[in-house]
């Protein structure tokens, strides 16, 4: 799907456990400017419902699992994240919804820019209006 893909990271495993290194511009396609994580999401809660204009992000589920629905004017995909050595890259102008967070799940997000509410498109009709020009 356009601007949306899975990234498999190195999983360094030994008898002491697992270690996954992630370096900006090496393991992911941008320099990391911001990190945040989402925890404690209750049953039935759906988050997201927005797109970004410029932001690139990689979502990694460090514990448990979460489903991500990604959409553009032409396509829709469902991804389940349940492996801390796999990230979902989501670039600009991709609509996302996150749901089915399991109890104790931890969703880590690596972002290419500092937080800016101006970069969000939180209305689906406005999103379609902007995105159609890009996807055409
Ligand atoms: C995304 C998905 C995966 C901040 O103050 N700073 C931040 O860095 C972020 C990400 C959010 N906020 C504030 C803005 C809202 O008042 O935290 C509140 C919750 O944010 P939001 O409703 O956007 O959260 P989600 O879970 O719907 O979406 C977030 C990211 O915003 C978004 O970029 O792709 O996680």
UniProtKB/TrEMBL annotation:
Domain Sugar 3,4-ketoisomerase QdtA cupin: 3-130
Gene3D superfamilies in the cross-refs: Jelly Rolls
InterPro entries: QdtA_cupin_dom, RmlC-like_jellyroll, RmlC_Cupin_sf
GO molecular function: isomerase activity
E.C. numbers: 5.3.2.3
Sorted UniProt keywords: Isomerase
One Pfam family matching this protein: FdtA
Record protein name field: TDP-4-oxo-6-deoxy-alpha-D-glucose-3, 4-oxoisomerase
Native organism: Clostridium oryzae
Taxonomic placement: Bacteria, Bacillati, Bacillota, Clostridia, Eubacteriales
């Amino acid at each position: 799907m356009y601007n949306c893909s899975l990234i498999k990271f190195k999983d360094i495993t030994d008898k002491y456990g697992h270690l996954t290194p992630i370096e900006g511009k090496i393991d992911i396609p941008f320099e990391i400017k911001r990190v945040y994580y989402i925890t404690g999401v209750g049953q039935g809660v759906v988050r997201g419902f927005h797109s970004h204009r410029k932001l690139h992000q990689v979502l990694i589920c460090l514990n448990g699992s979460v489903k991500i629905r990604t959409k553009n004017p032409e396509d829709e995909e469902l991804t389940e994240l349940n492996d801390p050595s796999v990230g979902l890259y989501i670039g600009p102008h991709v609509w996302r919804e996150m749901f089915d967070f399991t109890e104790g799940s931890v969703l880590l997000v690596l972002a290419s820019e500092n937080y800016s509410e101006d970069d969000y498109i939180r209305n689906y009709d406005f999103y379609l209006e902007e995105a159609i020009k890009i996807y055409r």
